[in-house]
Amino acid sequence: xxxxxxxxxxxxxxxxxxxxxxxxxxxxxxxxxxxxxxxxxxxxxxxxxxxxxxxxxxxxxxxxxxxxxxxxxxxxxxxxxxxxxxxxxxxxxxxxxxxxxxxxxxxxxxxxxxxxxxxxxxxx
Length: 124
Known about the structure:
Helices cover 0% and strands 52% of the residues. With 124 residues, it is mostly beta strands. The strands form two sheets. Strands 2, 4, 5, 6, 9, 10 and 11 form a seven-stranded mixed β-sheet that branches. A four-stranded antiparallel β-sheet has the order 1-3-8-7, with no helix packed on it.
């Protein structure tokens, strides 16, 4: 089993930055895919970013502002969020899959392991 735990969320001002962490423990995989998703208030969970040996992928809404940092096979990865907007307000989840990113990288169904989620609130 793999355990994931997010930390570092909270309140930020529009235009500011915030970095959230995802600590992993338990079983490790050679080339895992790591993903970030979010659930805005009153909306469905949506893809934010993913990274694997095959590359990095970002939702259009965050491209150029957010980046995944860290190494997938190490204990902690990060989501660096810059130039935050009010619409970035959401509960953010990290996710992991034993297999590398593929055509389904943006689908929650690809990922077998999930963190509990952490709130990020951006004030305008």
